[in-house]
Amino acid sequence: MTTTATPAATPSSITLRRPDDWHLHLRDGAALAAVLPHTARQFARAIVMPNLKPPVTTTALAADYRERILAALPAGMSFEPLMTLYLTDNTTPDEIRRAKASGFVHAVKLYPAGATTNSDAGVTDLVRCDATLEAMQEVGMPLCVHGEVADPSVDVFDREAVFIDRHFIPLRQRFPGLKVIFEHITTRDAAQYVAEADDLVAATITPQHLLYNRNAIFTGGVRPHWYCLPILKRETHRQALVAAATSGNRKFFLGTDSAPHARGAKEAACGCAGCYSALHAVELYATAFEQAGALDKLEPFASEFGADFYGLPRNEGSLTLVREPFEVPASVAYDRDQLVPLAAGTVLNWHVV
Ligand code: DOR
Ligand code: ZN
């Protein structure tokens, strides 16, 4: 990383190796066309989530989706979609072998059925997938985990911590050689679990979970644009996540979980879960790392550790941010609707050149 120093010793610009987003929702059709340029402006690659309607459950569907993503990329932009398969109770070991052989499927995603947006086709009981998980372990196909129990009797703020004991630990005992990414961790419990696990376990962390605690959802009224799953937690958890992200531990890396939903679907009696951060993701992370006095740890978190964990080369290009006030737009166009970005109307310290 290169920095340009101001007299106050805070750099006035930072240049990073071009980063990747290790957890992203791109959607499809006109929505895909609206959000893809935002990601491609900053990131060279992204792990693309498969929770479309219907979900991306096969290598053939992932190939088609990949083509639609590449077709939606504006001329002159470069971006490589890293595809994932949506794990169901019926995913076969053969499908895993096809996915591995494709070269473009880089992970399989576990959504516990009912845990979040478009998870209805997800896994009802992980032991039903054991033959498939065995094949993943054998061929070296990582499992991305939405680590929340879907059990309605468990408090929504406890669902991640409970998942560790009920599912994560047993999964790792059954498949100690399986590479697992604990996606979008939100608790001290998860950060600690990952830090203490062996090197086959890693975690992604979103900008919203680094910058905000659960008060943000209820500041002066209900704030639907701060509602995502797993939900924001209390301040002690946010602090633990900041400590993990800025620790220099290679198990923690960038994954925005940018999840676009039209304004009307968020500002509703039953609003959708998801924060839109693709527009300004690196600016958000830089603001969080600066607040922690750890800007020097941003580059490995954003541009090195994820690629290393997935066994992919680090990118060659670079991305420069300047330290200048950047007011997050109130909204951006989205299909025939609008998207409200995370922290709309607030001022961030950093801006991508
Ligand atoms: O907040 C979320 N939104 N969490 C998820 O797990 C899914 C995502 C989406 O697809 O909208
Ligand atoms: Zn997600």
Automatic annotation (TrEMBL):
Its EC number is 3.5.2.3. GO terms for biological process: 'de novo' pyrimidine nucleobase biosynthetic process; 'de novo' UMP biosynthetic process. Zn(2+) 1 binds at H23, H25, K109, D257. Binds 2 Zn(2+) ions per subunit. Keywords: Hydrolase, Metal-binding, Pyrimidine biosynthesis, Zinc. Residues 21-320 form the Amidohydrolase-related domain. The keyword Metal-binding applies. SUPFAM superfamilies: Metallo-dependent hydrolases. Substrate binds at H25, L26, R27, N51, H146, L229, H261, A273. Zn(2+) 2 binds at K109, H146, H184. The keyword Hydrolase applies. One of its GO terms (molecular function) is zinc ion binding. Pfam families: Amidohydro_1 (PF01979). Pathway: Pyrimidine metabolism; UMP biosynthesis via de novo pathway; (S)-dihydroorotate from bicarbonate: step 3/3. InterPro entries: Amidohydro-rel (IPR006680), DHOdimr (IPR004721), Dihydroorotase_CS (IPR002195), Metal_Hydrolase (IPR032466). It catalyses: (S)-dihydroorotate + H2O = N-carbamoyl-L-aspartate + H(+). Its cofactor is Zn(2+). Homodimer. Catalyzes the reversible cyclization of carbamoyl aspartate to dihydroorotate. Belongs to the metallo-dependent hydrolases superfamily. DHOase family. Class II DHOase subfamily. This is Dihydroorotase. It comes from Derxia gummosa DSM 723.
